Amino acid sequence: MLFLVRHAESIENATKYTGFYENPRPWTGSAAHALSRDVVGLTPRGFLQCLWLRQTLRELTGPDPAIRTSQYRRAIDTAVLALPGLSYEVTALLNEQHYGAATYMTKQELYATYPEGTQDRQTRKHLWTPPGADGESLARGVLRRATAFVDGLHTASAADVVAFTHHTAILALRAVLERRPVTELVDEARVRKTPNAAVLVYEQAEGLFHARGTTQPDC
Length: 219
Hints:
Distance between the termini: 25 Å
Number of strands: 6
Structural class: alpha/beta
Order of helices and strands: EHHHHEHEHHHEHHEE
Shape: globular
């Protein structure tokens, strides 16, 4: 079984438009990305969600699941709090989409600074490649990483794998696991994103993964 977990609520989630997305942005793109990756932790609500995950995952998984997490602090913190005392493997394959020089830019600032990417960002979000050398699109960069991660699951020795990751990475992983167009999942996410600390359950049979439901906290 595979359990995809979106990290618990982070400070960025809770204060997105009041604390991180200032206009003009006070950081360079590289500094903003480092802040997002290494500094942003969980809110008190996020800690409560981790307690819910601890009980939920204990009921869903076997006694010794393989744990994978992205390189971002909020995902690692969620893994450590949800499954305390267990070893985990950090992998860049589960990282959030890299927004490059646009990390933490408001849309207004982004369009003013990089007008050439406005149309893609507005109408073809999955194809939009953020500016800067490290920027990656959902349909190429993130989907490529998701494909590599899923390919690796076919040879995993553990019966259960728990993967702690991010909203955009989950879109790409779902596209691979459910064999659906990423554009369809992006459209669904415009209406409703995967909630923080939600657990998406997949069962592997005859080389394919099949969705078996989603559970989410009420806190």
